[in-house]
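fyi for ur records
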Amino acid sequence: MGILSVRKLSFTCILSIGLLSQAFGQSLVLDDSIADIPPHMIEIFPEPLYGTNGFKNWIVKNYKIPTAAKKAKVNGKLMINFTIEKDGRLSNFRITKDIGYQTGEALITLIRKSSPWKPGYQNGCAVKCGYTYPLSFSNGEIKLDKDIQKDKDENPYY
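which gave:
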């Protein structure tokens, strides 16, 4: 394939994208970057009502570490999966990585009490989405990330 063929192919691709963007009435390519994506092509991930950090703060404030886990000074990462339904309700809870001492069951019990989330969208329609939530422990206590508020009283999450 020669340079002339590559230029023709490149021109054809740009022309095709240009025609496609005219059909949607929007610009897709501007200086070799995506400028405006048609709304029906956008994917939106589900999100807790007050954002991810608000949800983390709510977990830290309300999670009751089981006594046995505190005594054993557990370390590690607990992970649970759940589904965010089309209407934002949470369902299908499952522990995927357990550190024992009923830590996973306690986390599921708490998250079941949370407010519905903003659902995920794909191609303009609400869709079911799976979500994995991790919770880290160090010496029997929740290991805090730097983005989690240490002042737990300021969180209006629920």
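Residues 4-35 have pLDDT under 50 and may be disordered. thats all i got for now
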